[in-house]
Amino acid sequence: METLRFQVVGEAFKKKPLVPSTPDERPSAYYGKKVFNREKMYRYLPKNVYEKMIDVMDNGAQLDRSIADAVAAGMKQWAVENGVTHYTHWFQPLTEGTAEKHDSFIEHDGKGGMVEEFTGKLLVQQEPDASSFPSGGIRSTFEARGYSAWDPTSPVFIIDDTLCIPTVFISYSGEALDYKAPLLRALHAVNVAATDVCHYFDPSVKKVVSNLGWEQEYFLVDEGLYAARPDLLLTGRTLMGHDSAKNQQMDDHYFGSIPERVAAFMRDLEIQALELGIPCKTRHNEVAPNQFELAPIFEETNLAVDHNMLLMSLMKRVARKHSFRVLLHEKPFDGINGSGKHNNWSLSTDNGILLHAPGKTPEQNLRFAVFIVETLMGVYRHNGLLKASIMSATNAHRLGANEAPPAIISSFLGRQLTELLDHIELADKDDLLSVAGKQGMKLDIPEIPELLIDNTDRNRTSPFAFTGNRFEFRAVGSEANCASAMTALNSAVAEALVSFKKRVDQKIAEYSKDSKYSEGTGHSPKYHAIIDVLRDDIKACKPIRFDGNGYSEEWKAEAARRGLDTETSCPKIFERYLDEASIKMFESLGVMTKKELEARNEVKWETYTKKIQIEARVLGDLSMNHIIPVATRYQSQLLSNVQNMAAIFPADKAAQLSARNMKLIEEIAERTSKIECLVEELVNARKVANKIASEHDKAVAYHDTIEPKFDEIRYHIDKLELIVDDSCWTLPKYRELLFIR
Ligand code: ADP
Ligand code: MG
Fold first, then answer.
1. Which of 63, 69, 282, 478 is deepest in the core (most CB within 10 A)?
2. What is the mean pLDDT of each run of 10 residues along the chain (741 residues)?
3. Residue nearest to atom 17 of ligand 1 (CA)
4. Ligand 1 pocket, 469 CB below 6 A?
5. What is the bridge-based pairing of β-strands 341-349 and 208-222?
6. Residue 354 near ligand 1, beta carbon < 6 Å
7. How far apart are CA 471 and CA 375, in angstroms?
8. 8 Å CB contact between 681 and 707
9. Whole-number Å distance between alpha carbons of 670 and 119
10. Does residue 341's CB lie within 6 angstroms of at least one atom of ligand 1?
């Protein structure tokens, strides 16, 4: 019989019968129940106001202040009917997670009573006391106050008794202090650039939207065990812990049947997420024990980002009700898979065309090739920046480790797409663009049957893989706000499309003057121009294409030869945001100014330092007040055993019988003294680093001189865990944390 050293809080749960909380309802019935969506706008707003709101949401029309009061009144009515008493501007500061400050609807009615009030002014703009959010010095240097402003493209929703209003958060001098403002600007930029390029093929396209389907991976740990691990509690990951004898070697967890207790949690989570309009679709076990995934149906990127932020906070709440803790950290356990958040990304037009999906006609496939190649151009030009966009102190542990993408951005295309691009690049141009009698031009662009885009040759090691009708950016961290990656990616692609358009237009103008080309004869200047520029770009972006094994050592060397960014130090990777090419891109598209980029990098470096600092403290504390005392106590037991042996047996015999214990006593002495020395070195290294004034240099010092000590300390602790009596070890071990009972 296995004995449990810790109380597993969720044990009791198994005994309860499982009853779904809304037994009679189908998800389609409660989907969006807590969202002020179009259907509710239609019901609660006057017709003219409803129509204006739709125009604002669909066509980016300016929000007319005069309708704000009417919208607020409709929202309030709906909210109050649903038991809501408070409202909050909900925003995404540069910390993790979201921020909110709740105000009640209550106002004096002037007659001695109270009345629920909510005006357009309160809906549209607020001034949260923002002085303690990280801003990289923007506020202190330029303008003390910041304000939050309603983002009408993401609907308001209800959590408990509060109406939550998605907002951007900006300083009075106009700098973005959050994730959402630059994202919205990048989405606007890619819309404009992609719509322009679409017009070569279809002049009726009015708008291009960016889509995002994220896949959220996470671990669950029993609340009781979590509470007994100060490192998990304070840093989100285990800073020590020997491998469990069984972990993921058997691959028996992936897609395995979901444990009952976990299934109940998932069901509860999904009901609440669906009520909030998050279209949850997929759930399954992941590769590592206790690791799971949830994925919704993809949505417009801004909404998808909000939904992911909402889901992460919902997960934490629901988990606690089930006596679980959710671990969103990218690498909570050493030696087994970490968690990511694959970002499935694509562009589509207002008339329903997926621009990254192959079409049926040669012309459609030319357009498809243009969007694929220009996406690759953006990713190639800004591969270092894209890596910076997903990098963090926590994700740094995952990249390059088991099953995670390597710390080099490259793109996998698969055989069929590779063949298509090769054909466009290498075929004789007269064959590609041949005259076909009266019909004008014949484009020799081969068809790719949609179904044939095989999922079978999916390359799991690629950080940016083509998967049939989208790209999957797999390097995003599980804990991250997707907005960071989405801002960088959409901007990079927007820039590539702008450049493509400019060059094609130049060539069209040039060819139109040449009698060799004339519209209607088959030698259309437009198609010649598109093909010529596309061929240049297919050649230019080749270094980013890599279908091989991203884990191999050869790839690292090859990538460096190709000029791809191979930096692995997190604080140095952040420098890519301040490269001339990055600043030029963000500024030319109106996404971020140099000043904003500099301020944000200060925040990134500062956050990095703080994270490592906290880990260093926790590791030092646990070493000194858990590990060394426990090991020493056990050592004393061994010592008295040795003394007792000597008292009873003749010296020779006693020595022989105590040989093993003597070895253990020595080993414990050696390891505890090494731990002590290393912890002292750690403290001293911190003292040195803390004196550095520049946030960049401090972060680099933490990376170079402090972090490397963690593994050295851990090594000795994990060895001690193997020899110290199990019943005295104070921390739950991997084998306990990793298997839900
Ligand atoms: P996987 O096989 O990669 O684990 P999943 O089904 O878990 O796939 O998740 C794929 C995600 O990609 C879902 O959110 C899905 O809605 C999304 N997706 C599918 N097609 C597109 C597309 N064209 N653009 C963006 N996201 C997409
Ligand atoms: Mg996937």
1. 478
2. 59 48 71 95 96 91 87 96 95 86 88 90 82 66 71 95 94 89 97 98 96 97 95 97 77 69 92 96 83 96 98 96 96 93 97 93 93 98 98 92 81 92 90 67 73 59 92 96 98 98 97 78 82 97 93 92 96 98 98 95 96 98 97 97 96 96 98 98 97 97 97 98 95 89 61
3. 213
4. yes
5. antiparallel
6. yes
7. 9
8. no
9. 69
10. no
Ligand 1 pocket: which of 215, 311, 482 to mutate (most atoms within 8 A of CB) = 215
Closest residue CA from atom 24 of ligand 1: 346
- The Cα–Cα gap between 739 and 244 comes to 10
CB of 348 closer than 6 A to ligand 1? no
Q: What is the pLDDT of residue 128?
A: 73
Q: Which ligand is nearest to the CA of 348?
A: 1
| 298 CB near ligand 1 (under 6 Å) | yes
Number of residues that this document lists for the chain: 741
31 Cα–ligand 2 center, Å: 24
Rounded alpha-carbon distances, angstroms, from residue 358 to 27, 144, 372, 453, 708? 33, 51, 10, 9, 47
Kindly state if the Cβ of 471 falls inside 6 Å of ligand 1.
no
User: What is the C-alpha to C-alpha distance for residues 532 and 197, in angstroms, rounded to an integer?
Assistant: 15
Query: How many Å separate Cα 600 from the centre of its chain?
Result: 17
Ligand 1 proximity of 213 Cβ (cutoff 6 Å): yes
Q: How far is the CA of 451 from the centre of ligand 1 (A)?
A: 15
Concatenated DSSP letters for 58-73? HH-PPPPHHHHHHHHH
Is residue 163 within 8 A of residue 132, CB to CB? The reply is no
Q: Which pLDDT value is given to residue 670? A: 98
Neighbours of 340 (CB within 10 A): 29
Residue 588's CB is within 10 A of a number of other CB atoms, namely 13
Q: Which residue has the tokens 């939550």?
A: 164
Rounded to the nearest angstrom, the distance between the alpha carbon of 384 and the centre of ligand 2 is 22
Q: Nearest CA to 319 among 292, 343, 297? A: 292
Distance 104 CA to ligand 2 centre (A): 42
Tokens of 363: 């012309």
Q: How far apart are CA 243 and CA 222, in angstroms?
A: 18
Tell me the Ramachandran region of residue 83: left when phi exceeds 0, alpha when psi lies from -120 to 50, beta otherwise: left
The first and second tokens of residue 559, run together, are 């990538």
Cβ pair 476, 340 in contact under 8 A: yes
Q: Which two tokens stand for residue 287?
A: 């590769």
Q: Which residues contact 388 (CB under 8 A, 6 or more apart)?
A: 488, 573, 574, 575, 576, 577
**Type of residue numbered 336:** I
Q: Which pLDDT score is estimated for 453?
A: 59
**Residue type at position 379:** V
- CA pair distance 497, 212, nearest whole angstrom: 19
Q: 């912890």: which residue's tokens?
A: 679
Give residue 9's pLDDT: 64
Residues with CB under 5 A from ligand 2 (ion): 342
Taking the CB of residue 42, how many other CB atoms lie within 10 A of it? 14
Residue with tokens 């402090």: 706
Please state the φ and ψ torsions of residue 346, each to the nearest 5 degrees.
-155, 170
Minimum-distance ligand 1 atom for the alpha carbon of 295: 14
Vertex 634 angle, CA 630 and 640, to 5°: 145
> How is residue 224 written in tokens?
């009781």
Cβ of residue 301 lying under 6 Å from some atom of ligand 1: no
**Ligand 1 atom index nearest CA of 296:** 14
Q: Is 209 helix (H, G, I), strand (E, B) or coil?
A: strand
Cα–Cα distance, 402 to 288 (Å, whole number):
10
Q: Is 215 in the pocket of ligand 1 (CB under 6 A)?
A: yes
> In 10 A of CB 456, how many CB atoms?
5
CA dist., res. 73 & res. 64, Å (int): 15
